[in-house]
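ugh finaly. both done.
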Amino acid sequence: HISPLLKLSIQIAAHGIKVTFVTTEVEDGAFMETLPEEQNSITLISIPHCVDEDVRNDALKTVETIESIRRVIPVYLEDLIAKINQSADEEKISCVITDTSYAKFYDLILCNSVYELDSSVSKLIPNALPIGPLLAGKTWPQDSTCLAWLNRQPAASVIYVAFGSSTMASAKQVEELALGLELSGHPFLWVVRPNFMDGSTVKFPDGFKDRVSGKGKIIEWTLQEAVLAHPSVLCFVSHCGWNSTVEGVTMGVPFLCWPYIADQFSNKNYICNVLKTGLELMKGENGITTRREISSKINTLISSDVINSKALHVKDIVRKSSNEGGSSFKNFKSFIEHIKSL
């Protein structure tokens, strides 16, 4: 959840409010690389990680990781808040923003969503304040190498493939995905973390990289918003994590949905059945999504005028909400006024 919280912090700081961002030592290095240099009003504080590395890196132990954090982190936060408030500095902590682990203590619930797309849900949640989409903006570092490659591709031609920061796949599934992208015949940009293949080094099919060298690009990381906003991107093969969902919807990119765990399945339903801006990739009897399913769904998606039209329509709704006078714009202004009144 670091990415949206950092984006929120930058927006808060832009209104003259000092922000202390608390993260774990494990995330510290990567976090600092993405923090814009001019954000002097954001202070980063690291606290020890309470979960062993083998547990953190196992996607199947997500619940165990969350429960460990819930038990240990509050102690560090209480001590930190007390220390800051007892310092000689006149500025005290007036507001604490956390994720949903501590929902029962909330005065407001900030949602990285848009009221017009979630009005029925928002009405059911007391004090819900949709302020999305939370975007990085132009102040964030850019991946110039990746964008330069995209600049050389035809408009609306590239399949963008990314599965978030923790999703893992079997060796067989990696093979089928690689061959499915090749079979589709389209240029592709594929984000492959070093531990994407069941936590081990990714191995591609024999000769795959040579065969796709003129058409495909494989990278370990990129600034996703910039990629999704690029005119050469045609569709988004995604695990449907909420951050990715918001970014793809905001940029008007249709989805091929490949959920793995937790809310990703409900997000998939939201994309395919509510917004109607994507299709689901289906698994076979052995639990593997085949190369032919991948290639077929890519071509079905990109040839669907209805889905592509829906994606652009939703993009327009989202953009209007964040423009001056829009629902998210007003909600965020109300939130800033609330903080300043404390």
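ok and the 2nd:
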Amino acid sequence: MSDWSLSDPLPSNEKEVANEGNENQVDDHLNIHQDSDIEGYTPPGTPPKRDMEGKSQPTDSQMEWRMDNLENALERHSDILDNHAEIIRDQTVAILDMKENIDNLNTVIQKLTEQIGKLTSELESDRRKSDGQPSDNRQKIAAKQAIIIDKCYRCNKVGHRAAFCPLKEYNLWYCFYYQAVAPHKGDNCPNKDNPKDGYRKPRRN
């Protein structure tokens, strides 16, 4: 056995080993403190953070990944909403244009109705005056009568033929099944089997 005791100084080679071990411990300690200065650094072996209910909290990298996914999802939904908004704007413009066309047609029909009423009044007046008058006056009355009898089957009005109907410009017809102006002929009416008020289109003479 060796005669060395705890009170005796260490041999030179054992001192070097002890000093080297102490230096390694100091270096490791310094490295830990240096790494801990980095933002978001979690020392090895550190248990996950937990909230008040004891549930583990996500790490910084997990939070960053979730935020990226959320931003991407919001961007996709924003694009979808923009597309829908554009479609709605286009449909609104089309509806407004159609409404304007219908208003114009109603104006034309109203003017035609007024014109027909005026011609009818003139005809009645001329007819009363024609009693006992020369034949040339009767011919004028007959001409006016022909204008009124001249009925248009496109708008269901009298005073003109279908070839000169103002509805022709808008590709519209008077539908006997709808009992209104529509963008289809009566024979092609989708409501043909269930007409308004049971109405049936009259036969042409």
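summary for the 2nd one i guess: Helices lie at 12-36, 60-130, 135-149.
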